[in-house]
Design a protein that fits this description.
The chain is an alpha+beta fold and 336 residues long. It is built from 13 helices and nine strands. α3 runs antiparallel to α4.
């Protein structure tokens, strides 16, 4: 804590009234609200003790500056120290889109939720101008190789193997995964994606949307962010809302590809399950386990798995996992 106070004072804020730890997210970063005489700021600490964290800090700093320069509403970085992994940023409060959808009357929350699609379209239109590919340590494109390594294999190893205890091999799913990765991934560098565009990463501050957690942005198909938004497991919205969001986005993007959206909804769904299992079990962030049942339900209802013959082993895997869940009560509690 002394290091944090020293950094704050180095930034010119000599009188700190109170420092309150904030609930973190899926990363290893720590967040603190700094109460000053006039207002408050948020301090982010991400110790650069390994190469991945160093790259994450650099990506956050560079993307924050570039996105703001091109009119995309992200928090302002007031001060930073990359050597110590410290950032003093604008305080956006605690109101996420997730909270609005859960708390306010349905019609009002529908209007707010649908309006977030405008923020997505803005990000997609200006993001390519703001994007700096040199700060992407794991590649700058959502290409088929990335899809397999970071999404599909993540699902197999973290969710199927570690979480459910199923010994589903790479060889068994290889053909399905390669087919899916080719359909979902792209080598195109014309568009940029946020890669985690969901209700927890959209804040509402002074009546306007603010986008956060954009360190993983990269070249990719814009339909990916739309997929992330409409199958967001943090909120339960009716299918009619999802259709409206898709139609609204389609009206703003004439190059929208509905077929690719289907494949991306599946890859994103698998990535979500892998991430929640990893965060909940390996990282000990049990909060994320609460959202696995909804993500699993979405996967079970995915029409692409049922109708596409190139995904027959993936379909059988989901069926096997479902049977496994029903046979093991302690796992069923997690999923059903």
């Amino acid at each position: 804590m002394e290091e944090l106070i020293r950094f704050i004072k180095e930034c010119g804020y000599q009188r700190v009234k109170k420092i309150v730890p904030l609930k973190g997210d899926g990363s290893d970063r720590s967040f603190f609200r700094i109460y000053l005489e006039n207002g408050s700021l948020v301090l982010v600490h991400n110790s650069p003790n390994n190469p991945a964290r160093k790259w994450e800090n650099l990506a956050f700093l560079v993307h924050s500056s570039n996105l703001r320069r091109y009119g995309i509403p992200v928090p302002q970085v007031i001060a930073e120290d990359l050597h110590r992994g410290l950032f003093l940023i604008e305080d956006l409060g605690d109101n996420h889109l997730q909270d609005v959808v859960k708390k306010v009357p349905q019609q009002a929350s529908l209007r707010t939720w649908i309006s977030a699609v405008e923020l997505m379209a803005l990000f997609h239109s200006r993001g390519p101008l703001a994007f700096d590919e040199t700060v992407c340590p794991d590649g700058s494109c959502y290409d088929p190789v990335f899809v397999i390594e970071k999404e599909l294999e993540y699902f197999r190893t973290a969710f199927l193997k570690s979480f459910l205890g199923l010994n589903i091999t790479w060889d068994y799913l290889k053909d399905d995964f390669c087919f899916l990765a080719e359909k979902a991934g792209t080598w195109n560098c014309d568009s940029v994606i946020h890669r985690d565009f969901q209700s927890r990463n959209i804040m509402i501050h002074n009546g306007t949307f603010r986008l956060i957690d954009y360190q993983s942005m990269r070249y990719g198909p814009p339909e990916y962010d739309l997929a992330s938004f409409v199958i967001d497991p943090y909120v339960s919205v009716p299918d009619s809302w999802k259709k409206r969001a898709i139609n609204y986005y389609t009206g703003m993007r004439k190059d929208f590809n509905p077929v690719r959206l289907e494949y991306l909804m599946l890859t994103r769904n698998l990535q979500i399950l892998g991430a929640f299992a990893f965060l909940g079990i390996v990282k000990g962030k049990k909060y994320f386990l609460n959202f696995i049942p909804r993500a699993w339900k979405i996967l079970r209802e995915n029409g692409l798995i049922r109708k596409n013959r190139n995904l027959r082993n993936l379909r059988k895997t989901v069926e096997t996992a479902d049977s496994h869940v029903k046979m093991h009560g302690h796992i069923a509690v997690k999923l059903l």
